[in-house]
Write a structure and sequence with these properties.
heterodimer; A: about 700 residues; alpha/beta; ABC transporter involved in vitamin B12 uptake, BtuC; Rossmann fold; 4 domains; six-stranded mixed beta sheet; four-stranded antiparallel beta sheet; 16 strands; about 55% helix; B: about 300 residues; mainly alpha; two-stranded antiparallel sheet; two-stranded antiparallel ribbon; 4 strands; about 75% helix; disordered C terminus
């Protein structure tokens, strides 16, 4: 039904582009909120909306951590508390150390003042609200990193429980550290914001009092700022990196994303949003107590994010608004209606009913219902996919390599050996998965690794790309790879695909390929949010390049650029994975069974395309079971069995190698061959004797 | 009291807490071992269990310390209370699994865990709205028999709590290791897919692990009531978090680990309350949780759950 309404509203504006419609809808929404306080004289309503705005900013911050980066943080209110106490401590009258002349410089710049309440002179902190906002965000961000750092290695569900613990510790500290926080009594008399007088324009200054309207506008500005930042971050290199981590950490790391830094960044930015809000909230309430920041706040924020849609910026704002509406309007109003009905029909039970007590019950019900029936929330983060035209669905098997190949750069493979693997050993506990393996890949060559299942082929790839620890030496273009993280290996120019396809399933083809470029792009959070010309140019270039790479496969991927990869055919997912690897501008490409699951025609097509990549100057190391592909492509073949290299040479040579036959066909077969040989020898010996 | 007496007294207190946390931790560990799910509803199944026990005792005519029983009647009342509490808590767990978690079994990601947070909320509010948020006096029919060991006091209920806990743990150990369903349970924990193909009814095994875990949570809730003499709607949070820490400390998914972890956490809580104050005990316990997870995520006895890769 919702979508029908949207279609109806959209009808008169059908000729507008999506962007234009979105822009005007946003402007209209902002205008409604901007003039609302002028239309009502009920301060309570304005106050309620201002509170809803605080929660919306918190939900936006939590959405960065939970929705974008997939780090389930159940103690998010801790950062809210940190922001609130930061501002509270530096303006309230509870914390006042004795005055000494050392404070004089701070008094001069207006951060403290000397006061006397009878007795010795004391220091009263007088930090400006406008200074506290950004610095509060920084302080909370710092704690975000501090809390995030030890938990980075943990997988989702453990992270949830540890953050729950942190969320519990912070209020305990606030309650117990009397000298800093004034204990359970909390801080009160926190100063509201003031706007200093500007004499030049005859402005006499303004002090926020108990009137809710000025807070409303500050809150609105904060929400607008954070929505803007969230959307800009989401649509940048940084947001893509977070979503990649959320979808598949291992693949994200192998595609050049530094897991540690980007998880910490998510924690830090999420926390700083929260610190921001903490300063605002406490300046509005003018008190800070430990109870304001306990688990129920964290879980209410989770409800907002779950209701609106994890990862959906407008969704979580809607979620915050709806929950606030539920608490302050729907439940009290419904209670009143029930009371009226109760009075008229004489039901004592209805008269005594108080639905406001049920608020948290509704939170629980909302979570359960959303998880069971609408996991993507009211406004899902992923958009509906455009349907394909018949023509776009049609793709013929092409021969002779790529389409539009001239748009892709060519490589200079260099000379000598690109990859030199010496005595590499990988152990899993007692099991030796690779035993002193030696392998070289000449620059510009194609080397194939074959061997029975479980022989260590994929482990070799994992060792090269830093996914498993190994001993020995792996040098790429002279640089040692062992000891590097997967993202560092990729940056050196070693890109890979996975045997069991590790794409980011909920992201689109285009996003997957853009993530491949991650390590070649430079944009940082500031650039992502404010988009200076350099960042704009970089993003446009990345988009062009991604489309060019997708275009290599012609009609197979280009019409599906905006489709989530989860819905693609198996062969197309393989193609996306190769595109993603190519996007990282590799100098060597490691392909792990690229043609597995393809039919013979598709296999031939892909084999020729791989050959073309090699002709363009890309060095290739390939694991493959299909021997026709191996013979067609590879200059050299290395055979692994039980972690040992058992043969090496051209495709022809290894096919005749006896040990290879044994490994593939089993000892019984070898015994059979040996028996035949022995029989043949006996025959020839007999012939000799007879002759 | 000498410091030796204090130590002994805190050892007794710690073992009581440990008994409670161990039983609660087993529920976390059984469900995590089989489904790799942190079940937040477990926190409040424990709380509901305590209220069920309170209700049963009330029905049997026990209120506060008004009735003190001896001998066979005492044993009968206790057995009946444990039985009813455990069975009804277990049924709550089965209900949660059957109605809410089973539809999400095939869904990857945090959906199931988030759902259990919602369930926890609902359980909390059912008690809050239905019974109220104030502290309830827990009925206690035990005679106040105690022995002095030096300066420390060993009460009869301490022995009773330990006895019941040991019996339950032995029963569970026997069940998991030697019965057909127990073996199915261990097989499912290793690899649900393979277990299913070998004829293990995975659905029953999952339901059973919820039943056992929740029944033990109920027993733990009853022990909480006997030990602290009260029941309150917000009792589940702190106890649950400590029990979860215990499960992690022992190695999540590991049944003996949860028992060991529970006892250790109980002793640590008693010790740190004595040494640095009750208020800081939580900080100590959460710090242990973080330290264990960061430096030894497999816990003391090793994780037996399969490792998702």
């Amino acid at each position: 039904m919702a979508s029908a309404i949207i279609t109806l509203i959209n009808r008169p504006f059908a000729s507008w582009s999506r962007e234009k419609r979105q822009m005007w809808a946003t402007i209209l929404l902002a205008a409604v909120f901007a003039i609302y306080p002028l239309l009502t004289d009920d301060d309570a309503n304005i106050d309620t909306i201002a509170n809803a705005m605080s929660y919306a900013t918190l939900a936006l911050g939590l959405n960065i951590v939970v929705g974008f980066a997939g780090l389930l943080d159940l103690g998010y209110a801790a950062f809210f508390a940190i922001g609130a106490y930061y501002y509270g401590i530096f303006t309230a009258y509870q914390i006042m150390p004795p005055w000494s002349e050392a404070w004089a410089p701070l008094a001069y710049v207006g951060l403290v003042e000397k006061i006397n309440q009878g007795g010795p002179d004391l220091v009263h902190f007088t930090m400006s609200f406008w200074l506290a906002l950004p610095t509060g965000a920084l302080v909370a961000g710092f704690f975000g990193v501090l809390f995030g750092a030890p938990t980075l290695k943990l997988r989702g569900d453990y992270l949830a429980i540890v953050t729950l613990g942190f969320g519990e510790i912070v209020p305990i500290l606030a309650r117990n550290m009397d000298s800093v926080t004034n204990g359970a009594a909390g801080l009160n008399g926190v100063k509201g914001p003031t706007i200093p007088a500007i004499k030049a324009i005859g402005f006499g200054g303004y002090s926020f009092g108990v009137d809710a309207t000025p807070y409303y506008y500050v809150g609105m500005a904060l929400v607008a700022l954070l929505i803007f930042s969230s959307i800009r971050l989401r649509d940048s290199r940084i947001g893509r990196a977070w979503m990649a981590i959320r979808e598949d950490e291992t693949a994200a790391s192998a595609m050049g994303i530094n897991l540690r830094n980007f998880k910490l960044l998510a924690f830090a930015i999420g926390a700083s949003f929260s610190g921001f809000t903490g300063v605002f909230f406490v300046s509005k309430l003018q008190v800070a107590t430990p109870e304001m920041f306990n688990f129920s706040v964290s879980s209410m924020l989770i409800v907002m994010v779950v209701l609106g849609g994890m990862g959906s910026v407008w969704g979580v704002v809607l979620g915050a608004g709806l929950l606030q509406l539920l608490q302050t309007w729907i439940l009290p109003q419904t209670t009143n209606v029930l009371h009226d009905i109760g009075h008229s029909i004489g039901s004592d039970m209805l008269v005594a009913a108080d639905l406001v007590q049920w608020t948290q019950m509704f939170f629980g019900i909302i979570i359960v219902v959303m998880m069971l029936f609408r996991r993507d929330g009211l406004i899902p983060a992923t958009r509906a996919q455009p349907k394909l035209e018949m023509e776009e669905q049609h793709a013929d098997v092409t021969r002779g390599g790529f389409i539009n190949v001239n748009r892709i750069e060519t490589w200079n493979p260099g000379t000598g050996n690109a990859l030199e693997i010496k005595d590499v050993t990988v152990r899993f506990g007692g099991l030796v998965a690779l035993n002193k393996v030696n392998l070289t890949v000449p620059a510009g060559g194609v080397v194939a690794v074959i061997g029975p299942n479980g022989s260590g082929k994929s482990t070799l790839f994992n060792a090269i790309t830093g996914l498993v620890p190994s001993e020995g030496s792996i040098k790429f273009e002279g640089a040692e790879l062992i000891g590097l993280r997967p993202d560092e290996v990729l940056e050196k120019g070693v890109a890979r695909t996975f045997q069991n396809i590790r794409l980011f399933p909920k992201l689109t083809v285009l996003e997957n390929v853009l993530i491949g470029q991650h390590c070649r792009l430079k944009t940082l959070p500031f650039g992502a949010i404010f988009r200076p010309p350099s960042a704009k140019a970089e993003e446009a270039g990345a988009l062009r390049k991604a489309l060019d790479i997708i275009g290599l496969f012609g009609n197979r991927l280009t019409p599906r650029a905006n489709h989530a990869v989860a819905g693609l055919s198996y062969a197309n997912r393989r193609r996306v994975e190769i595109s993603r690897a190519l996007a990282s501008r590799p100098r060597i490409l490691l392909l792990d069974e690229p043609t597995a699951g393809m039919n013979p025609n598709e296999t031939l097509e892909l084999a020729e395309q791989i050959g073309e990549l090699n002709a363009m100057g890309l060095t290739i190391l390939i694991i493959e079971h299909k021997l026709d592909v191996v013979t067609r492509l590879a200059n050299r073949v290395t055979v692994l069995d039980h972690g040992d290299v058992i043969a090496e040479g051209t495709a022809d040579e290894v096919q005749r190698n006896e040990e290879v036959l044994t490994a593939y066909l089993g000892r019984a077969h070898r015994a059979k061959i040996e028996a035949q040989d022995a029989a043949a020898q006996a025959v020839s010996a007999g012939e000799n004797a007879n002759g | 009291m000498t410091s030796g007496d204090l130590f002994l007294q805190q050892l007794i207190n710690g073992l009581n807490l440990g008994a409670m946390y161990s039983l609660l931790a087993l529920g976390f560990t059984l469900v995590y071992g089989i489904m790799e799910l942190i079940n937040f509803s477990h926190f409040n199944v424990f709380m509901v269990g305590c209220f069920i026990a309170l209700g049963v005792l009330k029905l049997l005519g026990m209120d506060g310390q008004s009735v003190i029983l001896h001998g066979l009647p005492l044993i009968g009342v206790l057995l009946l209370t444990f039985l009813i509490t455990m069975v009804s808590s277990g049924m709550i767990g089965v209900g949660i699994e059957r109605l809410l978690l089973r539809p999400l079994r095939a869904v990857t990601g945090p959906a199931a865990m988030i759902l259990t947070i919602g369930v926890s909320y609902i359980l909390f509010n059912v008690i809050l709205i239905g019974i109220g948020g104030d502290t309830r006096n827990f009925a206690n029919p035990l005679p106040s028999v105690s022995w002095n060991i030096g300066g420390a006091v060993l009460r009869m209920r301490d022995l009773l709590i330990w006895g019941i806990t040991i019996v339950l743990m032995l029963g569970l150990t026997y069940f998991v290791n030697y019965t057909r369903l127990g073996k199915g349970m261990r097989a499912t924990a290793q690899d649900p897919e393979a277990a299913r193909m070998m004829g293990v009814e995975v659905d029953s095994v999952v339901g059973l692990s919820f039943f056992i875990g929740s029944a033990l949570a109920g027993a733990s809730g009853l022990i909480f009531g006997l030990y602290y003499n009260y029941a309150k709607v917000d009792m589940g949070f702190a106890a649950g978090l400590r029990a979860f820490t215990a499960a992690v400390l022992g190695g999540i998914g590991n049944v003996p680990g949860a028992m060991l972890g529970g006892v250790l956490i109980g002793l640590i809580e008693a010790g740190s309350s004595q040494l640095i104050g009750q208020l800081w005990a939580d900080v100590v316990i959460f710090s242990i949780l973080v330290i264990v997870l960061v430096f030894r995520p497999a816990g003391l006895l090793g994780r037996q759950a399969p490792n998702k890769s």
